[in-house]
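Ticket opened by: R.M.
Priority: normal
Category: complex prediction / small molecule

The reporter submitted a protein together with iron/sulfur cluster and asked that the result be attached to this ticket for the collaborator who will pick it up next week. Submitted input follows.
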Amino acid sequence: MIDAKAIRVIVFNCYLLYGRGVLVIKNIIENVAVELLRQAVTKLPPDVKEALQRAHREEESEVGKTQLEAILNNVELAEKTSTPMCQDTGVIIFYVKAGAQAKDLDKIKEAIINATRRATKEVPLRPNSVGIFTRKNTGDNTGRYIPYINWDVISGDTIELTAFPKGGGSENICQLGMIRPGDGLNGLKKFVVDTMLKAGGKACPPNILGVGVGGGADIAMKIAKAALLRPINQPNPDPKVAKLEKELYEALNMTGIGPMGLGGKFTVLGVNVDYANRHPASYPVAVAGQCWAARRASARIHLDGTVEYLTHKVR
Amino acid sequence: MAVYKLKTPISEEDVRKLKVNDVIYITGTMVTARDSAHKRALEFFKEEKPLPIDLQGLAVFHCGPIVRKEDEKWTVIAAGPTTSTRMDIFEDEFIKAFKVRVVIGKGGMGKRTTEGMKKYGAVYGAFTGGAAVLAAKAIKNVEGVEWFDLGMPEALWILDVEEFGPLIVAIDTHGNNLFENVQKEVEGNKQKIYERLGV
Ligand code: SF4
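Result attached by the on-call engineer:
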């Protein structure tokens, strides 16, 4: 089904195609990246919004309920006025799945940097890129390695972009544990629970936790973060992992931390687990925290210039 | 959980009626202040210099807002609360010196502030973390800005607010601290969770 926005995009791209003789995929990538940043910070993906609504219905603590209601009102207002739902619009991260036969692959990075600068002004985003040694804010959300891009090469000729602006509060509760392999899954469960207990209300709960196991220290954290891209209403396809997700979800919602750490049932909205095989002697477990403002937006760009928005409905 | 709508200036008597878990909405004047503003205000007090605004009976908001100037007029774009624990080292003195009645922020505050609130009559109102649009909507007007030399987030923004909230009373004047209560409960739940998971 092609909606109005897609048609506009096609018309615009036809102009690029015929008006200038060549199809400038790079410009399309830049425009799409700006749009994805806007979508991500102003509108929650449907799975997160639904989970918040459900939490609001089922929360037993009165105080907890007021917090969920305030969050939902805030989300509603942000959507309506197209303003960022939280003042911290995060550090800018992108995930790119580049089709080997797609065009302008070498221009994607530049397009994303340009898009970040534009979105900072146009949306607007809060400038969140500070030099380590200069302590200066660059003012446009770019800087060394930032926006950060996670690359993946896929077959075919499409380019899939995901914008993942990541807030500082929830980033600060991320933890990596190199647990004893002998402790295995029990060690993992304890580590995840302890991470949440330590975080308490700091990362604006209800939170979403991404858990990555195995691989190595860096791999576990990468997997944990990427797990946050999976909608929380889609359990891991592997039933064993799905069971672990459910078990952790239920355990974390027994902590009593509750919305905003003010007490209640909903400390987390979801737990997404993913894993890699591991070295026999090591057992890395990474927990990546996400706040209620779980911002992500994806789109697929085709070789002919059409754009499919994957996470958000486009008006 | 009672709901109160308060208008500034708020009297000491009125805040002493509030209890943790109550919900309050504030109408009137609210002033933002973070670390630097707290520090400077206390220095002024020591030197017996008057503050640019009389804070008695007002609400102080731990917030570094995003504010935009258009045609000589300031508008608040986003105004979510910042983490309050950083102000813990100033707040009791601040309440004593300036008689603010409501302190607004996120994440709660510690023992020293709890004692100060009991002694001098103020409450801590927790505003939903990240809910910046909701906060901005309740801000009807920017009355003024003082100490702009501290930078946009650190300056004293004098805001005219209407039903700013919901604020959960998390520290009252009776020595109760909701965050501490929750913390105790969470500690108590820890073993149960470990047992359930078999760890
Ligand atoms: S933790 Fe998330 S919701 Fe809270 S202030 Fe930071 S980015 Fe916003």
